[in-house]
Amino acid sequence: MPDASITDLLDAAINRVWNEHDDTRRLSAIREIYHPDARIHEPERTVTGDEAISAVVAGVLADMPPGFRFEVTGATLGHHGVAVTRWRGGPPGQTIVSGADAARIVDGQIHEHWFFFDPAS
């Protein structure tokens, strides 16, 4: 059975951080969900800390078309402090990017968050 608290954290990161265009609200959500020294790992970079994570999210969202949102597709699974989920992103009715995330949760916050992108089709 999935550990609800860790799976909820990963879902919250996607919904409340990676979809938030307002810098103040996004930074507030990051500080609630992520550890202060959290690291996010994308294929091309790793960044550490709430301000750096917020800057990455702002850059990603700025590059996306109007109406773009990330959404979890299917169940988020987790145990022993690790949660994984699949997601898609795009404007309503379109998928322009998809992949999977994994997060290591310690003491109720995300300490590390990995992003895996499906190959472009």
UniProtKB/TrEMBL annotation:
It comes from the Bacteria. Residues 23-113 form the SnoaL-like domain. This is Putative SnoaL-like aldol condensation-catalyzing enzyme. The lineage of its organism: Bacteria, Pseudomonadati, Pseudomonadota, Alphaproteobacteria, Sphingomonadales.
